[in-house]
UniProtKB/TrEMBL annotation, chains A, B:
PANTHER family according to UniProt: HYPOXANTHINE/GUANINE PHOSPHORIBOSYLTRANSFERASE, XANTHINE PHOSPHORIBOSYLTRANSFERASE
Primary localization class, coarse: cytoplasm
Pfam families: Pribosyltran
Record protein name field: Xanthine phosphoribosyltransferase
Subunit-structure text: Homodimer.
EC numbers on record: 2.4.2.22
Domain (Phosphoribosyltransferase) ranges: 45-171
Residues given in the record as xanthine binding sites: 28, 35, 164
Species classification: Bacteria, Bacillati, Bacillota, Bacilli, Lactobacillales
Cross-referenced HAMAP family: XPRTase
Amino acid sequence: MKLDRRLVIKILEEKIKSEGIVLGSDILKVDSFLNHQIDPFLMSQIGQAFAEKFSHENISKVLTIESSGIAPALMTSLQLQVPMIFARKHQSRTLNEEFFSASVYSYTKQTENQIAVSKRFINPGDRVLIIDDFLANGQAVQGLLDIINQAGASAVGVGIVIEKRFQAGHQLILSKNLPLVSLASIDRFEDGQVVFSKQGETSHVN
Amino acid sequence: MKLDRRLVIKILEEKIKSEGIVLGSDILKVDSFLNHQIDPFLMSQIGQAFAEKFSHENISKVLTIESSGIAPALMTSLQLQVPMIFARKHQSRTLNEEFFSASVYSYTKQTENQIAVSKRFINPGDRVLIIDDFLANGQAVQGLLDIINQAGASAVGVGIVIEKRFQAGHQLILSKNLPLVSLASIDRFEDGQVVFSKQGETSHVN
């Protein structure tokens, strides 16, 4: 079953409003359906929405980072009928020549992680779609782009479940001329409430 | 599309034989389709196979541990139409009273992790199905059972994609009279090759 994408976005926004918890100036906790407990029906619809938006991009791999990116990336890859890869995070472990690796700084946790993808799974010629649950400062996407670049593959777009448009990641991706689809786009937090961007879903796809 | 469960097991065994890499005496690396790169079609079939086996158990939640358990657990929960929860791993972080937590020792990595699940997501009365990618010594399952117990909920079964039957986890689960379904059951490694259990899929379901 596939719902219309507009309806999926509506459901997602309603879930964020009713279950999301705003913490401080820039953190949104949505652990009841997105990144601790997961609503599999909504996640399936999210995957179908991304697959529809990127269906003409001839994608060969879907790439994300553990752990929260796995669910939306898996559902997208199922629809696109291509493999999904999740980059592994390591705080310090010495990486070897079997892996492409990149550094990702987390502003939330104030930690630097190495992320790694086996060289066997991304090859020159691959057309890679990046999927993640959140877009904030764009550090995770930046790290994945770095890995795609090392592999000699092409990044063909970025699909984000929830973007905080007021942080740097949104502009960072657009500045690279990368197609960006953010299903829920948050303009700002106001009195502990989420205010969505007026223009709705971010969609910069050719 | 749903394949017959016997065929799913056959495909899984063939994938293990052709792509799995045996390391040392007890490690099987299957990162090409199960826990780094993921085959979404196979994962979907695995989810349907678990859902079929546990369809009469009136399950209300599917529980796993990040990261490798997320994909099979998500696909199972989608079929069962119930929420999926993945326990978070923390090497040291101080946990607070918002979480149920347990210790999980990893023989492979020789590290002790705390796993945690928010108290909001498992309640008394919940009937919980545990799903994981691998069963070796059963430490992960043990930790999840501990959390289910703290919540006053019931564990109704365990679904495992690949079990190493020669390690302690298999007997540990059966000794608790818990229904266990292991799709691929490995009897032993011989000359770097995988030998599957003669009786095939482990299935101890009422």
